[in-house]
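ingest -> fold -> write
write: protein_1
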Amino acid sequence: MRPDAFLVNIAWGTAVVEAELIKTLQTRAIAAAMFDVFEQESLPGQPAMGHA
């Protein structure tokens, strides 16, 4: 994906590997990501996805 890309995930299941997406966001390989669903619902404590 391009560095100015935005990923929007509304798919249930493992369509997106969250750990890899977190690394991708932290290295600024893409601009942003928005999620409607997560691998684990409800998110525990301070989720990395909320701070990547």
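write: protein_2
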Amino acid sequence: MKMMKMIFIILILFTTHAQAREVELSWDPFENTLGYHVYVSKTSDFKQVVVKKASKEPTITVNLDIGTYFYKVRAVDKDKQPGHWSEPMKFSVTPYPPELKAPKNDVEYSYFEIPPKVEFEWKPVDDNPEYEIFIYKTTGKKVFEGRTKDTKYSLNTLEEGEYMWKLRTIYKEIYESPYGEPRLFTVEKKDIQKPELIKPVQDQAVPAYRPIALEWQKDPITKFSDIEMSYVDDETGDKKTVPMPTNISESETYELPFAEPGEYTWAVRTKEGEKTKGVLSETGHFTARKDLISAGNFAFYWGIGLTSLTQTYKSTYTPGYENGESKSTAWTNNFIGNYYFTEGYGLQLDLTYGKYHQADADLPYMTTTITNRLRFGTPGFNQNFIIGYRQMNVYEIINAPAASYELYTTNGLVMGTQFNGTIARNYQLSVEGLYYKPITHIEDRGKLSGDVYEGTIGLTWNPTYKFFIGYEFRYHRGIYQVVPQNSPDTRNNKWDTTIITPIFFKLGFEN
């Protein structure tokens, strides 16, 4: 009987137990035969035969566990005589490839800076084998190959591109299934929106040596912010870097506790991760100035000045003041304190002690003035309008020559304008003009009213950031009249007072 030519075909038809697979063996048919004998063994010498079968057809299906086998076939003629055995043929039974679950075909992932975590998942194959996952780009370039005994695998290193993935089973590190049908997925990188700087507004002037609120708006996808800041020092002209925090989590605000005077530039870099590159905002600019005021600012100073007082008066009511003019020059002591609850609202206390000459006598006087001041103006209040309410207590001699002292109180509306500016390093110039409408009732005498005009030009120098020395020129003119209670006549009850202080020096502290 001629030698048999054998062909074997492995088909996945039916699984009888965990490792078993149906294997179809086939060979070239012989003529004039009754059938065939088929032996399958684990060894080439057929000492471990696992299958002995007879078949009338040149094909047979057997159930075999995963492993390596040998099979041989012989023909049986019509006289029922077997022929010679064929040469043994070696073959292997491999495991099934897993069934893929996720990601499904043609899924798209997107990310901004941190590559997405892609979860690969498949159905388990019996007997707890290993699985080999193979990921490659649609161009064919290999990206990743790895093994696991789990039915899940995750990667977070896949950058932008189109990918394919497929899987096979590895049994006892020897037997490998074919790869299953590959699936396509895409990873797309998107751009992060630049953060927008909100506060301080562009080119705003802010008070130096005070906390400065920084605020920005970031892309919701980002989680961390780095602040970058530098400034040109007012004193030296040098550019300096300001140490600023990095990886500010979630927040879109930061309070700079302290700002030296100078021109500042700043930007914010927002990031998806602590170590990612992020995206940088446009550059912001602001100026920290020593002459500006903010909430919580307070300042006080003491000063002394040479005051010239001229007073003309006409009165038919007060003895000794019927008609005339008096002039006097004296040193005046002055203490002023300011506190600002907000940058636009503050309280001012003014204590003044001095003397003036009237009716051949030197008359001492003292005033205490409290003024509520509201400011409305340009950013930084370089130019602003002031409106407020003033209460002034005056302690002086009004009945000469009897030298009787009297305290009276005036109150009323005050308004005016103010201009502030820096003319050189550490030097600030201020100009202020005010109008005051005092009203008071003098017991048993009548009602005093008037119009008061005040002007001040000042120059201050800051040897350090909290202490200052200054000079002021002051002008005050008050036009008063008294309406007696028992007479409507007011023509001869008027005072016109002009106070000029050409020399006034002050020493103060501010915070």
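write: annotation protein_2
Residues 6-93 form a domain with the Immunoglobulin-like fold (CATH 2.60.40.10).
The chain has four domains: 6-93, 100-189, 196-289, 298-510.
pipeline exit 0
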